[in-house]
Amino acid sequence: MKNFENYTYEELANMLYLKGEKDGYSKITDKSKWHEPVMAEKLGHTAHKKISAGAGALEYGSDAKDASNGIYAEYKAKCIVDEDLKNLFEKVRNVKSGKTFVPLKVPGIYNGAYKDDAIVKYSKIDHYFGVFYKELSILIIKVNTDYVIETLRNGMLKMTEGKTKNLNTVEVNLGDTHLYEVAYKNEMWWTKMNITNIEKKIEEEG
Q1: In this structure, is residue 189 part of a structural domain?
Q2: What DSSP element (H or E) covers 12?
């Protein structure tokens, strides 16, 4: 088997597309659709095969279904880079004061949430926000539905006539733990990163 470094980006993307096609997902590389089956697998859900369901369909406004309770689920994903790790881990910003970096904020854009009936639809499903690092799923939180709906309604009221209506955003500050519960955590990754951070601290302190 070839090492991934021996593949071109085109070849890797093509393999991802073909893998998705084989599993029944249409255009899995489109709009990061592949995040959905990854999150669904972690949560024990079943991701929808299509990119989006049409209005009127039972699954409209969702990305997967939780078969254990029959409730549909909406997924949002944030891809972070090394610069974001200081916020994710709330690293110390000032040694003297002990002040830390602010907690990471995880946003989710809700397309179509500019009409009341669409927001009502979102009120009947669960909402999961995932965090990916180098395309690894490292954290998934289940956000309080009441918070999601309240935020969407406030966002709808602030929308400006004539401007795009697909920017109704719900943002969750990971420091506000009362707004969510952890649904999945990549413990192996977190342990590895914590060990790395400790080793760096020891090295810096000499």
Answers
A1: yes
A2: helix 9-22
Number of domains in the chain: 1
DSSP H helical ranges for 23-128? 35-43, 85-88, 116-122
User: What is the model's pTM?
Assistant: 0.88
Residue pair 184/132 in contact by the 8 Å Cβ criterion: no
Q: pLDDT tier at 131 (50, 70, 90 boundaries)?
A: very high
What count of residues does the chain have?
206
- Residue 159: give the domain boundaries: 49-205
What residues form DSSP beta bridges with 165?
Answer: none
Decide if pLDDT at 53 tops 60: no
- Residue 93, Ramachandran bin (φ over 0: left; ψ between -120 and 50: alpha; else beta): alpha
Does 34 reside within a domain? Answer: no
Report d(CA 202, CA 49) in Å as an integer.
48
Q: How far apart are the first and last CA of the chain?
A: 42
DSSP state of 57: S
In the chain, DSSP assigns E strands to 46-47, 64-66, 71-80, 92-94, 99-100, 105-110, 126-133, 136-143, 168-173, 180-185
